[in-house]
Specification:
By secondary structure, the protein is an alpha+beta fold. Helix content is 19%, strand content 45%.
Length: 281
């Protein structure tokens, strides 16, 4: 037991040393310092450390505390800044104060800027034992709600060049707001107009599908007629997603309910056929 415990301590210490390294007076390579000074010429109280292979500068800009992340080539990747509620853009304050979490207590606010992505303001709110992170764009749009988030922390996000080029070609007006890797898939969240879409690529970075939520009044009448004349006509519509698929098929996916029964109905928007009906797991 003693040997196991000591081994665990050694492994834990090595892991910590790899993930974060900070010492008094540490200064990274000159190209990184120059890149930082060019981006933040008025920065004060600058301290450097290494996090997950990135060079990270903790600093003050006026009354704001922030940290900027650079790769080893001197490329700026991300800046996270502490923000007060009164310094938020007015449209974000208004959006929060008129939203469903207006009565919750604001615990913390971060401004997250990442290379090639939209700036996001993250408001952490609490109500009793509940904690929620609200992600807002600069125009006041609430794009994500994360429940009960623990160990808050952000890392620079990058996407393959092929995925970036695909999005530029297919959705030229879109802005990227989030990048996730999950189960071998790359999911890139974008804002296209005012619509939040998930653009999904496989492990070879080949586009698979783009999906987004739609309202019932946005569904074409001929698609709704297929649903109304189906065996599920008496079910209540709970949610609707629209998908653009790589094989050229466009579909509407209806989440339907009747009592304790829940089912997904997928309708091909091209030929108006029901592709599948599957119980909700």
């Amino acid at each position: 037991m003693k040997t196991t415990f000591i081994t665990a301590i050694i492994i834990l210490s090595a892991t910590f040393a790899f993930s974060s390294c900070k010492s008094d007076g540490y200064i990274p390579a000159k190209n990184i310092v120059n890149a930082f000074n060019a981006k933040y010429p008025k920065a004060k109280q600058v301290e450097w450390e290494v996090k997950n292979t990135y060079q990270v500068a903790e600093f003050r800009l006026g009354f704001t505390e922030a940290e900027a992340w650079f790769d080893n080539n001197g490329n700026w990747m991300m800046t996270e800044s502490d923000v007060s509620f009164r310094s938020l853009p007015a449209v974000i304050r208004n959006s929060f104060e008129t939203g469903e979490y207006a009565r919750w207590k604001v615990e913390d606010i971060d401004k997250l800027e990442r290379a090639g992505m939209e700036t996001v303001y993250i408001i952490e709110v609490e109500l009793g034992e509940q904690e929620v992170d609200l992600h807002y764009l600069e125009n006041g749009t609430l794009v994500k709600t994360v429940m009960d988030k623990e160990n808050r922390g952000y890392l620079p996000e990058t996407m393959p060049e092929s995925a970036q080029q695909f999005i530029k070609q297919k959705y030229p007006q879109a802005n990227v707001i989030e990048i996730d890797q999950e189960k071998g898939l790359l999911k890139i969240e974008i804002i296209d107009g005012r619509i939040k879409k998930d653009v999904v690529f496989n492990h070879q970075n080949v586009w698979v599908v783009t999906t987004w939520e739609v309202r019932q009044n946005e569904v074409p009448a001929n698609v709704m007629n297929v649903l109304k004349t189906s065996a599920y006509a008496n079910y209540r519509i709970d949610d609707i997603d629209y998908e653009e698929r790589a094989d050229g098929t466009n579909v509407y996916i209806f989440e339907m309910e009747q009592g304790n029964k829940e089912v997904y109905i997928t309708i091909n928007a091209n030929n108006l056929e029901i592709i599948s009906s599957a119980p909700k797991n």
